[in-house]
Structures are given as structure tokens and as C-alpha cells.
Amino acid sequence: MFRIRKLWLILTFTVLGLLAHATISSFAFKYEGIHWDDSDLPVTWELNQNGTADCAGEFQAVRSAYQTWENVAGSYFSETYLGTTSLTGPAYDYHNVVSWGHTEDSVATCYSWYYSATGRLVEFDIVFEDDYTWSSTGEAGKYDIQNIATHEFGHTLNLGDLYGSGDTEKTMYGYAASGETKKRTLHQDDIDGICYIYPKPENQPPDTPSVPTGPDSGTPNTSYTFT
């Protein structure tokens, strides 16, 4: 089982630095405080035309993953797939791109750029590690594309990784195993998360997320600040 990584690339004019954010308890969902502006919806995105050589059906698997989040009834979040592109990530180039490449030490990584002063999210790229073997059908010994993509797209909504003992069945649980498909289907806490960040008027959230019992044994997320 391998960790799925998330990097925040902050658009700001501060000195280059490294910020580590620790947590002391496990939330039902973890909201990082960044969001898409309503004027930026629907979020448009593209898939690199090369996909993966490991299997067929990778493009539809990725598209289905984002549609899972868009289809949550209590949320107004929306996305639009623009088709394939020759672009790859990660790169701040005004394009939200999903591609296969190299992520160093994770199955997949979501890179996000936002303005620290306003919390406005402006771009993301998702990279699947090409050194792993991928499947679109949940084959044993291979990483399921839709499973991993659903988790990574959760990061594009600004939902964070969870590592508590009570989080293992959630889409936003920060570890994934080969052959796993359970992240394809959102847990109620995942649904509550997107509805908290992007609520329809009739589903306005409470003041704070609910906090279940139990310690958080996970590694804190890390934010990289660039000039």
C-alpha cells in the first residue's frame, strides 16, 4: 500500500519557505481552506493524449472519477472536460491537466496553485506515476485508475488526506492498495466535505466540520511557498 501525495504551490510574493501543518485529531473530512471562486465554475480540465500504455479505457475512467464529485446532489460544484491535450504537468500554464509521468515517491500527486491572500484556487495538475501498472477494471496487482483519480480529484476541491483509523473506507483516505476500487464510491464524510465547501443554498453547512473520536496517526500535509 502506498501513500497518495498532495502538493500545494502557493502563488504569493513572500520569501521562499516551507510550511508544515500538523493536526492533532481526525476530522470527518479535512478542508484545507482553499476553494474555487464561483466565477471559475465549471472547472475546465484536459487529459494528456498519451494516457497510459497499461490498459484501455483510461480516459473514461478518469472522467468518471470527476463526475462522481460533480454528481453529489447537495453541492453546486461543476466541471467540464475539454478533451485531450499534448500538455503535461506539473506546470503553471493556465491549464488543468491530468497525465501520466513521474511523481518520485507516490502513486499519484495533485499539484495545486492558489493565491494565499484570498484562498482562490486557480489551477491544478494531476500526475499518475507511470512506473506503476494501471488498470481500468480493478485488476489484482494493478492500481485502479478511477479509484486513484477519484481521490486526487478530491484534492482539486480542496479536501485533504485523512489517515485516522476510522478513515480507511473514505475516498480521501491517504493510502491506496493495488486492486483497490472502494475509493470510486464516496463515503458519506466525503460527500459532507464537498457539500461543506460548495453547498447548494438549501444545504448550508454548519459552522465547523464534525470531529469523530480517535487519534490521527497520519503524516501532515506540506505546503510549498514560491515567489
From TrEMBL:
Matching Pfam families: Peptidase_M10
Upper taxonomic classification of the species?
unclassified sequences, metagenomes, ecological metagenomes
Gene3D superfamilies from the xrefs? Collagenase (Catalytic Domain)
> Which ranges carry the Peptidase M10 metallopeptidase domain?
42-198
Q: Which GO terms describe its molecular function?
A: metalloendopeptidase activity; zinc ion binding
Q: Mind telling me what this protein is named?
A: Peptidase M10 metallopeptidase domain-containing protein
Polar residues compositional bias: what residue ranges?
Answer: 216-227
Q: Which organism is it from?
A: marine sediment metagenome
Does Hydrolase appear among the keywords?
yes
Per the UniProt entry, what are the Gene Ontology biological process annotations, in alphabetical order? Answer: collagen catabolic process; extracellular matrix organization; proteolysis
Name the GO cellular-component terms.
extracellular matrix
Write out the ranges of the annotated region (Disordered): 198-227
Q: Which UniProt keywords apply?
A: Hydrolase, Metal-binding, Metalloprotease, Protease, Zinc
- Family annotation (InterPro entries): MetalloPept_cat_dom_sf, Pept_M10_metallopeptidase, Pept_M10A
